[in-house]
Amino acid sequence: MGKKTFFVKLELFKCQDLIALTNEVQDVSSAYATFTLGGLTKTSTCIKSSLDPRWSPSEKFEFEVDEWENEFLIAQVFDRSKDGQDNLIGSAVIPLALYAGSRNSEMCSYPLVLPDEVGEMGLPKSDMFLQIRLLNGDGSLVEELCW
Fold first, then answer.
1. Where is each C2 domain found (predicted)?
2. What sections of the chain are H helices per DSSP?
3. Is residue 144 within 8 Å of 98, Cβ to Cβ?
4. CATH code for the domain of 70
């Protein structure tokens, strides 16, 4: 029996209420997102001068994985810096097991956990809006996990 392949398709729509990393008046971020799964990282375009960036049209990413039951998508949002030292605004760790079955096609908001040096004890404040789909190798939706 051959090795099964699964696809994780995600669509990035927007982020909301990102934190400003400096104390300057009317500070904004130049935000971009990275998505890491199975050792592979993919990066969105940068949306300049906004604490509520919207990717329009939405940006789509695809990953191929051999198994999904114990895999996690790591989503991170960064503020692009002119000096090349980009700063982490927030991150989310998303279990792929959430996307088996009926939840497969919904757009969801994910709270971004702030880095400890920035946030109030790492409590989430900002949100990222994604649609994540978990597909079998033939393109059909992965059904519920059965134990």
1. 1-109
2. none
3. no
4. 2.60.40.150
In a domain, 143, yes or no: no
Q: Is 88 helix (H, G, I), strand (E, B) or coil?
A: strand
Domain that includes residue 25, residue range: 6-136
**Which of 115, 132, 7, 101 shows the shortest CA–CA distance to 63?**
7
For every one of its 147 residues, what pLDDT tens digit does the chain have, with 9 covering 90 and above? 567 899 999 999 999 999 877 655 467 889 999 999 999 999 999 999 999 999 999 999 999 999 999 999 999 999 998 888 899 999 999 999 888 876 666 789 999 998 876 656 545 579 999 999 999 999 888 886 554
Please state, in angstroms and rounded to a whole number, the distance separating the CA atoms of residues 4 and 66. Answer: 6
Distance of CA 4 to the CA centre of its chain: 25
Read off φ and ψ for residue 113, nearest 5 degrees.
Answer: -80, 125
3-state secondary structure of 72: strand
